[in-house]
Specification:
about 150 residues, alpha/beta, Rossmann fold, 6 helices, globular
């Protein structure tokens, strides 16, 4: 089983979007028994809060219910539990290193799996949830392909 943890700053926008979109992708391919997928934050700011309403609306429009998801912080134990720890931007990557040193090369940015590696902008600040959705969807598709190609 491949275990993926998506990480962003607060675990209310980008990382839960990635978590649920990736779950949808693996379900569409009949691979849900082969993957375990979660998301977490590098900060403590939003711990316990639900998914941010604009993200909820995007997921709901796809028929995805994320109402049970509540923000949590990444832990040192997550490093040992997950095979891929995929963050949204360079700042997350740095902050993940304060939580657990990446001795096994598990850390990456989501869009590093695409032909255009860059940070996924935080829609909390940009307000552009549609671009975030497109980038997260593309990153998830490419990450899934990478995993399947390397099994």
């Amino acid at each position: 089983m491949t275990k993926i943890l998506f990480v962003c700053h607060g675990n209310i926008c980008r990382s839960p979007m990635a978590e649920f979109l990736m779950k949808e992708l693996v379900r569409e391919q009949g691979l849900e028994d082969d993957f375990y997928i979660e998301s977490a934050a590098t900060s403590t700011e939003e711990i316990g809060n639900g998914v941010y309403p604009p993200v909820k609306r995007i997921l709901k429009a796809r028929g995805i219910d994320c109402s049970a998801k509540h923000a949590r912080q990444m832990t040192r134990a997550d490093y040992d539990k997950f095979d891929y720890i995929v963050c949204m931007d360079q700042k997350n990557l740095r902050n993940m290193g304060y939580i657990a040193i990446d001795t096994q090369n598990k850390y990456s940015r989501l869009l590093d799996y695409t032909n255009n590696p860059h940070d996924v902008a935080d829609p909390w600040y940009s307000g552009d949830f549609e671009t975030t959705e497109r980038e997260v969807q593309q990153g998830c598709r490419e990450l899934l392909q990478h995993i399947l190609n390397n099994k």
